[in-house]
C-alpha cells in the first residue's frame, strides 16, 4: 500500500477576523472582564490578546476558534431561550441550581479554562431549548 501525502490545507485561514469581532461584541454584551475574556479564549499571552482586541483580526489556532464557536453557540441558545436580550445576556452571571453548576454561575464553569466546559454549557443550553 502506497502512502500518499495528505495535502496541508488551512481551513481556519481567514476566520480570525470575523471570529474575533464576534467574540469582542459578545464580551461587551456579557460584560466580561479582561481576565475572563482571556480565560475564555484559552489564556493567550497578554500581548497577543491586546493585539487581537485592538485590531480585531489575527491568525487563530484551532483551539481558540473552537472556543469562540462554542461561545457563539451559547449566545445563540440564550437568545432563543430568553426573548428578553438583557435576561439572555445576564443568565451566565446568575447562580444556577442545576447539578451541572452546583449553585455557581455558568460563567464560573466556563472560566475553568477547559474547552470541555464550554462544550458542556453549550450542550446544557441546547438540551434546555430542545436542540441536539
TrEMBL record:
<protein>
    <submittedName>
        <fullName>DUF2384 domain-containing protein</fullName>
    </submittedName>
</protein>
<dbReference type="InterPro" id="IPR046847">
    <property type="entry name" value="Xre-like_HTH"/>
</dbReference>
<dbReference type="Pfam" id="PF09722">
    <property type="entry name" value="Xre_MbcA_ParS_C"/>
</dbReference>
<feature type="domain" description="Antitoxin Xre/MbcA/ParS-like toxin-binding">
    <location>
        <begin position="77"/>
        <end position="131"/>
    </location>
</feature>
<dbReference type="Pfam" id="PF20432">
    <property type="entry name" value="Xre-like-HTH"/>
</dbReference>
<feature type="domain" description="Antitoxin Xre-like helix-turn-helix">
    <location>
        <begin position="17"/>
        <end position="73"/>
    </location>
</feature>
<dbReference type="InterPro" id="IPR024467">
    <property type="entry name" value="Xre/MbcA/ParS-like_toxin-bd"/>
</dbReference>
Amino acid at each position: 500500500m502506497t502512502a500518499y501525502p495528505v495535502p496541508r490545507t488551512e481551513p481556519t485561514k481567514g476566520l480570525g477576523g470575523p471570529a474575533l469581532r464576534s467574540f469582542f461584541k459578545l464580551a461587551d454584551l456579557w460584560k466580561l472582564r479582561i481576565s475572563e475574556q482571556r480565560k475564555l479564549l484559552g489564556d493567550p499571552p497578554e500581548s497577543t490578546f491586546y493585539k487581537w482586541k485592538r485590531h480585531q483580526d489575527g491568525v487563530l489556532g484551532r483551539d481558540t476558534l473552537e472556543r469562540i464557536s462554542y461561545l457563539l453557540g451559547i449566545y445563540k441558545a440564550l437568545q432563543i431561550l430568553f426573548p428578553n436580550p438583557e435576561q439572555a445576556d445576564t443568565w451566565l452571571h446568575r447562580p444556577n441550581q442545576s447539578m451541572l453548576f452546583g449553585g455557581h454561575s455558568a460563567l464560573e464553569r466556563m472560566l475553568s479554562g477547559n474547552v470541555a466546559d464550554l462544550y458542556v454549557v453549550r450542550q446544557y443550553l441546547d438540551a434546555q431549548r430542545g436542540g441536539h
